[in-house]
Write a structure and sequence with these properties.
Two copies of one chain form a homodimer.
Chain A: H1 2-7, E1 9-14, H2 19-31, E2 36-40, H3 48-54, H4 58-62, E3 65-67, H5 70-73, E4 77-83, E5 94-96, H6 97-108, E6 112-117, H7 126-129, E7 134-137, H8 149-165, H9 180-197, H10 208-217, H11 223-238
Parallel strand pairs in A: 1-2, 1-6, 2-3, 4-6, 4-7, 5-7
Helix pairs in contact in A: 2-3, 2-8, 6-8, 9-11
Chain lengths: ~240, ~240
């Protein structure tokens, strides 16, 4: 069961600069039993340096899925954990890695999940963070917190492995979790309804949609809940 | 106190082949607040590759102590933990990394201690292992357990840091949480809006309001979020 659980955990690297880091990430993943590598718009393709750093984990490089956007890489997932060193004003509260992997591993009992990492230099964008379900950080020295990308993947993958093989898992929800794409479609609908109602002023959107993403994103929305929210919006739309 | 504790924890690399791994080890150590690097008879001296991989942790390279033997590197320590992937017939029973760092950190309150790592290819010799107080392994995939040297240092240094500091949590939220009565008023407003829009049929309410309470109740709503939700409902109401 735990091998199947680990197979459902994607590692998503967004806009990586150095192919060597992709290779080192593949090695780090494979040591911990993870295999699903997703690359969002890497600045350079997988090359000989990547294969050298993968050092026997080149099967993960060959199986890597190339995606144009984070949205594409998260298709079909029910939970995504953004890994970020920086404090974010409007993001979810950030949990330490050990706590943060617990709900991720629990959600993996229900479907695909993702660990999401940003660029070597600047990490994830706020927009990317708000597409995820939660945010994690690795406890590090405040004066020098710059873990190498593959080192950060190693620590999170290690925590995931310990959590997955260890005994106590939260009971999975009795209801089906919504898929990423259904949640994104809900946000599109919500924005349209708010524009039509006049509450969202396109000339002055303030931070309304990010705030609403933060509110709903803290929940792992269930499929039926998304259906209800969409139904509500349809009812409001009719009167607009 | 915990910074002083971390300063007493040496990382000892025995007979390292590649200077790049020494540099990457320095970086991994520094992110976790460790600073005391001991090199036992490295096959090649610290070079430009080591400095490139250290990436800002070159102060640790400059401060590294060069030793002729493991015995010399362990002078003055009160506890040494051998890190080894392989099963050893004649060694101590091996504990997983998380358990193994507990007595190490406890001993660091009394004096200097060491995490001891062997060569990239064959790890520590049996003779070296038996100079240490205990043995640790990192849980890894049985089919591919070959962590990069610096990755293994990263995981152990991370476990040491978490044990020494306790998991630091960021504040759960920087924003004021909504009060119970404000949330209840929101539910009253939501129900009225849903009745007016026709989505909630008073003759057949099904379980709509309980489901919405369950959805929003899983979040601890913030005051500002309740204000936004009430504003949205006002905008929808106007069009009803």
């Amino acid at each position: 069961m735990s091998a199947e659980l680990l197979s459902r955990i994607r590692v998503v690297l967004s806009r990586t600069s150095h192919p060597g880091n992709i290779g080192a990430t593949a090695r780090a993943m494979k040591t911990m039993g993870l295999s699903a590598l997703y690359l969002v718009a890497p600045k350079k393709p997988i090359d000989a340096e990547a294969e050298a750093m993968a050092s026997g984990a080149d099967d993960l490089l060959r199986g890597a899925r190339l995606c144009a956007s984070l949205d594409e890489a998260l298709q079909g997932t029910v939970y995504a954990l953004a890994v970020s060193a920086r404090r974010r004003e409007l993001a979810h509260a950030s949990a330490d890695a050990r706590s943060a992997v617990q709900p991720l591993v629990a959600a993996a009992q229900a479907g695909a999940v993702a660990l999401v990492f940003g660029t070597e230099m600047s990490g994830l964008s706020n927009e990317e963070i708000l597409q995820c379900s939660a945010t994690a950080h690795i406890s590090a020295d405040p004066g020098y917190s710059s873990l190498n990308l593959a080192a950060a993947v190693q620590v999170l993958a290690y925590e995931v492995r310990v959590a997955a093989l260890g005994a106590q898992l939260f009971a999975p929800s009795e209801f089906a979790l919504a898929r990423h794409e259904d949640i994104e479609n809900f946000y599109v609908h919500l924005e349209q309804s708010l524009l039509a109602s006049g509450f969202l002023d396109p000339a002055n959107p303030r931070r309304l949609m990010p705030r609403l993403r933060r509110l709903f994103g803290r929940n792992r929305l269930e499929q039926e809940e998304v259906n209800i929210l969409r139904g509500m919006l349809n009812a409001f739309d009719k009167n607009t």
